[in-house]
From TrEMBL:
<dbReference type="InterPro" id="IPR003607">
    <property type="entry name" value="HD/PDEase_dom"/>
</dbReference>
<dbReference type="GO" id="GO:0016787">
    <property type="term" value="F:hydrolase activity"/>
</dbReference>
<dbReference type="InterPro" id="IPR006675">
    <property type="entry name" value="HDIG_dom"/>
</dbReference>
<dbReference type="Pfam" id="PF01966">
    <property type="entry name" value="HD"/>
</dbReference>
<dbReference type="InterPro" id="IPR006674">
    <property type="entry name" value="HD_domain"/>
</dbReference>
<keyword id="KW-0378">Hydrolase</keyword>
<protein>
    <submittedName>
        <fullName>Phosphohydrolase</fullName>
    </submittedName>
</protein>
<feature type="domain" description="HD">
    <location>
        <begin position="51"/>
        <end position="141"/>
    </location>
</feature>
Amino acid sequence: MERDEAPALLRRYVTSPSHIIQVAPAVLLLRPFAPNGAHVPALRPVAFGPTHSHATAAIMRKVAEHLGEDAGTWEIIGLLHDIDYDIVCGDMERHGVEGYRILIENGVSEEIADIVRRHNHLLFGDYVRPVEVALQAADSVSGLIIACALVKGGAIDEVSPRTVKKKFKEKSFAAGCERERIRMIESLMDMETFYRLAIEGLAEARGDLGLG
């Protein structure tokens, strides 16, 4: 697949009345913008295989199903939320803003692109819409749960809500996972339910994440 083919293929699927785009074309769009592969499933091997964006997408899908929301759209939002990560090189003043530009230029709906833009909590905040709240929580909890699995040799089935709850309280464990963002989910459901859904989502995607 040539680099410039991805956006053209994506346009076949991107917009619909419900703003749904299919996962496979979304991955094609994502790949050219993540040269180190860290956020793209199946782009290159990563230690233990977990990829942040794909993990976030899996969690977003399960949360959407639980809430009766559009699971396909939420999954795509999770997959594309960090599309500009390697471009901005840690510049959080640009993160999300560049993602919005990339998505709009490639024909992604304004609704999805704007959610990607606003997910940068350092620039935005006051999240009220369920999809934005869920993205904040899923973005952070994915790393926490994967870290729990890696401690157990990558076995996601060995991770329980109780495990995550315990590790959540250990601030030094997976310290980069922002606990206050995970807690945002409490406006939609209790924490134990969220942990259960997140674990289920990662378990269903274990093949793509390199988990056992």
